[in-house]
């Protein structure tokens, strides 16, 4: 990287532009279609206060905002030039991290709410939809502010005439103490705390199913809740755990806190793959909605049947008119 003093550590980073271009191209179309359909269907259940629907809608919106920025990323990694100016570069860079941490927080909220509502059904009955709306507004403000340091930190030497963006951005020089404080804060609040909460909710929901005194209808609800929290945990571990482990050492290496050449090579080679894994969440989250929410499946089947019926009727009317 531009600001790293370990210039003698020759990491083979030439492949990363191709890796990013291929990954984002593969993600774009499925992510765009799946999240658009998810938003279209989830709004039908917005009145269901005890199904985490508000959180799912916000999660789909976060994914869609990142997906819509992918064509510009694909253009850059194919052409290796950025003609769109400084602001758009930093905005797309910012949306990447906004999506990541908003997704982490909404996955955590979905897990916590499903666990709490199945463990305490009376809380679900008294819960108001406006509570979820208020939580979402507060979360967007907090996450939006917390992600601002990412584009600021990576805007070294960037101006409107620059032709570099994203992975090729320089890093601003910040004193070691500030780097450590920001890094520990980001890792704890954006990774470790959600990891603890999601793991706890998954284990506790699983434990509840071993209680033989539960009634059958409660068992059914708890099985649904378990599928949901397991799905959230799976997306979290697949997409975000590798990234945050690598990210910790990535910042330490690029800030010259770690001087080991061996560590430098390993981290620089693994970091592009961890970023690609983190982006795949845009395609995995819609799968979470489909396989864990029976209402979502039913509504998708109903809408699909309606669309097919309308098309068949229109074809029949055209045929009869002839």
UniProtKB/TrEMBL annotation:
Any one Gene Ontology MF annotation carried by this entry is:
G protein-coupled receptor activity
One biological-process term from Gene Ontology?
positive regulation of Rho protein signal transduction
InterPro entries under this entry?
GPCR_Rhodpsn (IPR000276), GPCR_Rhodpsn_7TM (IPR017452)
UniProt cross-references to SUPFAM superfamilies, sorted A to Z: Family A G protein-coupled receptor-like
Check the record and name the Pfam families matching this protein. 7tm_1
Give the G-protein coupled receptors family 1 profile domain ranges: 34-289
UniProt KW keywords: G-protein coupled receptor, Glycoprotein, Membrane, Receptor, Transducer, Transmembrane, Transmembrane helix
* Subcellular compartments: Membrane
Q: Where are the transmembrane segments?
A: 20-42, 54-78, 84-110, 131-153, 179-203, 224-252, 272-293
Q: Which GO terms describe its cellular component?
A: plasma membrane
Task: Look up keyword Transcription and say if it applies.
Answer: no
| Membrane topology summary | Multi-pass membrane protein
The protein's name is: G-protein coupled receptors family 1 profile domain-containing protein
Q: Which organism is it from?
A: Eleutherodactylus coqui (Puerto Rican coqui)
């Amino acid at each position: 990287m531009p600001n790293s003093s370990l210039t003698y550590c020759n990491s083979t980073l030439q492949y990363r532009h191709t890796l990013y271009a291929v990954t984002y191209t593969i993600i774009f179309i499925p992510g765009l279609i799946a999240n658009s359909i998810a938003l279209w269907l989830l709004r039908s259940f917005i009145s269901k206060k005890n199904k985490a629907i508000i959180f799912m809608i916000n999660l789909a919106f976060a994914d869609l905002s990142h997906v819509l920025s992918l064509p510009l990323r694909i253009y850059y990694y194919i052409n290796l030039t950025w003609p769109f100016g400084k602001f758009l570069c930093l905005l797309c860079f910012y949306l990447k991290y906004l999506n990541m941490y908003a997704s982490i927080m909404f996955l955590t909220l979905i897990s916590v709410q499903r666990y709490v509502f199945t463990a305490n059904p009376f809380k679900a009955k008294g819960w108001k939809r406006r509570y979820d709306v208020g939580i979402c507004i507060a979360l967007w403000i907090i996450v939006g502010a917390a992600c601002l340091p990412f584009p600021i930190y990576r805007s070294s030497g960037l101006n409107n005439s620059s032709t570099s963006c994203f992975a090729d951005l320089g890093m601003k020089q910040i004193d070691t103490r500030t780097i450590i404080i920001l890094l520990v804060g980001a890792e704890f609040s954006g990774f470790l705390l959600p990891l603890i909460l999601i793991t706890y909710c998954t284990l506790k929901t699983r434990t509840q199913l071993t209680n033989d005194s539960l009634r059958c209808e409660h068992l059914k609800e708890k099985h649904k809740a378990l599928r949901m929290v397991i799905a959230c945990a799976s997306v979290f571990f697949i997409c975000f755990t590798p990234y945050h482990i690598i990210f910790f050492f990535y910042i330490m290496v690029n800030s010259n806190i770690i001087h080991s050449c061996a560590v430098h090579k390993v981290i620089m080679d693994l970091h592009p793959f961890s970023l690609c894994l983190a982006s795949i969440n845009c395609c995995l989250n819609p799968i979470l909605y489909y396989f864990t929410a029976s209402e979502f499946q039913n509504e998708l089947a109903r809408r699909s049947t309606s669309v097919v019926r309308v098309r068949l009727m229109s074809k029949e009317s055209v045929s009869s008119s002839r």
